[in-house]
Fold this protein.
Amino acid sequence: MYGLDPSEAAMAAASRFREVEASSLLELGAGQGRDTFHFVGRGFDVTATDFTDSGLEAIKTQAADRGSVVRCLNHDVRRPLPFPDDSFDACYSHMLFCMALSTAELDSLVAEIRRVLRPGGLVAYTARTTADAHYGAGIYRGDGMYENGGFVVHFFGPELVERLSDGFEIIDRFEFTEGELPRRLISVTMRKP
Ligand SMILES: C[S@@+](CC[C@H](N)C(=O)[O-])C[C@H]1O[C@@H](n2cnc3c(N)ncnc32)[C@H](O)[C@@H]1O
């Protein structure tokens, strides 16, 4: 759905993760794996999760075709992450945080990411922002969410970015665009102390 090439966010995150010598990487909302294989190609040991089986099947097929190893897991991020404490060096998530997840669900999700990251581990996430053309358009679903074309998006403003950084140190943030709308996004990288 989002093309075959890795996103700008994945390329930036891979460089950041390398700086802290990350190896084990948890990807949340991997979709059909356009970014998954960018990380695999750079030597990361990737666990890819999504709650859609079709995407995970596409990743498994591609992994088999390429002779790569990717652990795939169907998981809904509204539930606790099924991994032990301190089990990943890094976590990456592109455009999952801005899906139909309430602020309370996002709070729980970042707490879970913090739990499964090792001390010093990094999380890089992206989300569509309140500068996006779809913000304020369509049907308002409450809690900063708007529905356009049957698709609910939670648009991020600076307050939400700050709120989700609780217990982390923000080490990098930048805005970028993607696609034809274009979608307006923020990328945030945070370190677990
Ligand atoms: C906008 S797509 C981005 C996919 C991929 N990261 C990319 O950039 O190509 C969001 C992804 O999050 C997944 N997703 C949405 N809500 C989810 C949830 N509650 N738990 C797990 N995955 C979810 C969707 O299935 C979809 O694959």
